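Hi C.,

You asked whether I'd gotten around to modeling the 206-residue construct. I have! Everything is below, sequence then structure, no commentary in between.
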Amino acid sequence: MNLTPKQLRIVQLIRESRLTNGYSPTMQELAEATGVSKVTAFEHVQALIRKGVLEREAHKARSLSIVEDAPLPDEAAPLQFPLVGRIAAGMPIEKCEQDDMLDIENLVGPRLGSNAGTFALRVEGESMRDEGILDGDYVLVERRNTARDGERVVALLPDGESTLKTIFREPDGSIRLQPANDEFEPIIVPDCQIQGVVTAVLRSYR
């Protein structure tokens, strides 16, 4: 999809605000964050609506949201690396063919037939520590509004907070968002908004 740098930045700001706060920025906030006038920010938003990237509820403040399944250029950059063998904490134990490639997009990208994008979030806190998701890690998240029991999700809670937990539906209809650390209690809510499902964890040693 052909978006200008300013339009792409506006989409990123809206996504970040909805993930963090549960609502979108105001037009004034978008203008200040992108260094343009409020009128120009409004024109960019209208262009994004026409392109099918954004939608809004009429006569409702802070209601801008990203259209479900809208392909975004910052959400699906393919990455491939040469796959040269396997390692057992020492010398390679099996050599692969020279033309083998590790396709990151195929490994952690959207499921076959899905147009959903994938975005990244930086993890803060230790509530998912026992599943190997540590403070400072990055998670890749497939943008979805549904999830199966046992999947690790980014969930927007009724109080507007977002959290990364494993989702389970209880017999009474409530939702349990389960941490992977005994120092944290499960979060039990009557309902929550699923914003995506974790597909991979990335950790940098640089």
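If it helps when you're writing up: The domain at 112-202 is CATH 2.10.109.10 (Umud Fragment, subunit A).

Thanks,
B.
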